[in-house]
Write a structure and sequence with these properties.
This protein folds into two domains: about 90 residues, OB fold (Dihydrolipoamide Acetyltransferase, E2P) (Beta Barrel), CATH 2.40.50; about 300 residues, BirA Bifunctional Protein, domain 2 (2-Layer Sandwich). Helices cover about 30% and strands about 25% of the residues. The chain is built from 13 helices and 17 strands. Strands 7-11-12-17-16-15-14-13 form an eight-stranded mixed β-sheet, sandwiched between helices. It is elongated and about 85 Å long.
C-alpha cells in the first residue's frame, strides 16, 4: 500500500512505500540521499550501498531531477531531515524518467520560467504561493456560506459592459457583438431579490495594455451583493471579510508563509477597525504633502501607496468623484459630485484589493448615467428592469483574488499567484 509523505510521522518504525518526484539526489561515497516530494510533503530517502541490491544502488544514484519514483523503506525520526523523518530505503522503482529537466538549481530569467510555467509550478516558492491561494479561495467560500450567501454563477460571455468600454475583449457571437465579462456584478444584482445575499466567483477579463506587477488580463474576482445594505454596511462587510481571509492564511498556511519569507507580524496587525478616509480628504492631504494631485482624477498606484503608508493596516478611501467611477454607483446625496463607493487599499504597496459601492436604485438616474457614459440603452434593458419591478437599496463589492493573495504572501508580482498567468504578451502555456 502506498502512503503519503505527510502521514510518515505516524508511521515511525514501519516499512512503507511512498511515490513522488525527486527534488534532489546527492551521492557521498557509499551513501545516497534522495529527496522526494509527493505533493503532501518532502522526505529524504537514505540509500546505503551495502544494505541494498546492486541494481537498487545503481538506480538510486542515477536518478535525475523530477524523475517519478517509488521508494520503499523504514520510517525513522530525524529532526535534521526535511519533514523531521527519513526513510531508510530498501527498494527503488522508476515510474517515469526525467531527462535534461529544463529548470535547474540555478538562476533563470522570468521569461524563461514563464515559458516553462507548467514545470515552474513544482518549485518551492510557487507551490507555497499557490497553496496560500487555494486556502484563501476556500476561506472565501466558507465566510460567505457561514453568512447565508448563495453562490450564483454568472456568464463569461455578455453583451453588457460592466466597467470601461476601453478595456473589453470583444468577440463575434453568431453575428452579434459579445464581450468577455469584466464583472459578474450586474447579474448577481438581479439575483438579490431572489436570495437577498448572493455572490459570484470566477474569472474576469480586462483588455488593459498594462505591464505592472499588479495587472493581469485574466484574473479571478469574488463579488458579493447584499440587499438593503448601504455604503457603510458594505465597508463593514469588506472589513470582516478581509480579516477572516488573513486569519485563515495565518492559521493554516504557516509553513507556506515561512517558505515565502513573509513577515507575518504585518499580517497579525490586520484587525478591525480599518481607517476610513474620504477621497476629498485624501486629495487634500496628498496636496499638503506636495503631491499636486487634482481633485476629480482617479487615484493611481503612486497615490494609493502614499495613502496606505499613512496607516498600519488596510484603509478605506470612500466617495470618489462620479466621473472616475462606473455608471451604476449611487449618487452621494450630500455631495452630488461624488458617488457612494469605496476602494480598500492594502498596505506595503499592494494597492487596491477591493472596489465596492452602493448601487444606483433609481431608474431614471441610472438611465441618465447610462446615457452620460454613451452606453447602448438596449444592452441594459434587463438591468433597468430591476429598478422598475421592486427596486431596493443594495450594495456590493469585488475582491481581486490575485492581488489579495499577493499582499498576504508578500510576493512582488501577482503573476506568480495564478497557476497560468495571462499577460498582454503571454497566452501560453
Amino acid at each position: 500500500m502506498a502512503h503519503q509523505i505527510r502521514d510518515l510521522p505516524d508511521r515511525a518504525g514501519e516499512t512503507v512505500t511512498v511515490s513522488g518526484w525527486t527534488a534532489a539526489v546527492r551521492v557521498h561515497a557509499r551513501v545516497a540521499f534522495v529527496v522526494l516530494r509527493d505533493g503532501t510533503g518532502v522526505v529524504q530517502g537514505v540509500v546505503v550501498k551495502s544494505a541494498v541490491p546492486e541494481e537498487v544502488w545503481t538506480l538510486a544514484t542515477t536518478l535525475t531531477q523530477e524523475s517519478c519514483v517509488a521508494l520503499s523503506g523504514t520510517v525513522r525520526p530525524d529532526p535534521r531531515a526535511p519533514g523531521g523523518h527519513e526513510l531508510t530505503v530498501t527498494g527503488v522503482e522508476l515510474i517515469g524518467g526525467s531527462e535534461e529537466y529544463p529548470i535547474q538549481p540555478k538562476e533563470h530569467g522570468v521569461e524563461f520560467l514563464l515559458d516553462h510555467r507548467h514545470l515552474w509550478l513544482r518549485s518551492n516558492l510557487q507551490r507555497a504561493g499557490l497553496k496560500v491561494r487555494a486556502e484563501v479561495e476556500q476561506a472565501i467560500h466558507d465566510f460567505l456560506y457561514e453568512r447565508d450567501f448563495v453562490r450564483v454563477d454568472t456568464p463569461i460571455l455578455t453583451g453588457a459592459i460592466g466597467e470601461s468600454a476601453g478595456t473589453l475583449f470583444e468577440t463575434d457571437y453568431f453575428g452579434e457583438r459579445a464581450f468577455l465579462a469584466q464583472t459578474g456584478q450586474l447579474y448577481v444584482e438581479s439575483a438579490c431579490p431572489a436570495f437577498r445575499r448572493v455572490y459570484c466567483f470566477g474569472p474576469t477579463f480586462r483588455a488593459e495594455k498594462s505591464k505592472t506587477r499588479r495587472h493581469l488580463t485574466e484574473f479571478w474576482m469574488v463579488e458579493p451583493e447584499v440587499a438593503f445594505a448601504d455604503s457603510n454596511d458594505n465597508m463593514d462587510l469588506q472589513e470582516a471579510f478581509v480579516c477572516y481571509l488573513v486569519r485563515r492564511a495565518l492559521e493554516r498556511c504557516k509553513a507556506e508563509l515561512e517558505v515565502l519569507g513573509r513577515d507575518v507580524t504585518r499580517l497579525e496587525s490586520v484587525v478591525p477597525p480599518f481607517p476610513r478616509i474620504s477621497y476629498s480628504e485624501a486629495v487634500e492631504r496628498l496636496n499638503a504633502e506636495g503631491r499636486e494631485f487634482e481633485w476629480g482624477r482617479d487615484l493611481g498606484a503612486v497615490e494609493e501607496a502614499t495613502i496606505s503608508s499613512w496607516f498600519d493596516r488596510p484603509v478605506f478611501v470612500y466617495n470618489y468623484p462620479k466621473e472616475a467611477k462606473a455608471f451604476y454607483m449611487k449618487e452621494n446625496p450630500d455631495d452630488l459630485r461624488t458617488v457612494l463607493c469605496n476602494d480598500l487599499l492594502a498596505p506595503e504597496g499592494a494597492g487596491e484589493i477591493i472596489g465596492g459601492s452602493q448601487r444606483e436604485d433609481d431608474h431614471d438616474r441610472l438611465l441618465a448615467r447610462i446615457h452620460e457614459e454613451g452606453l447602448p440603452e438596449e444592452a441594459y434593458d434587463w438591468y433597468l428592469d430591476l429598478r422598475k419591478y421592486g427596486t431596493f437599496p443594495h450594495s456590493g463589492f469585488g475582491l481581486g483574488l490575485e492581488r489579495t493573495v499577493g499582499w498576504i504572501t508578500g510576493r512582488p508580482h501577482i503573476r506568480e499567484l495564478v497557476p497560468f498567468p495571462r499577460l498582454i504578451n503571454r497566452l501560453t502555456p
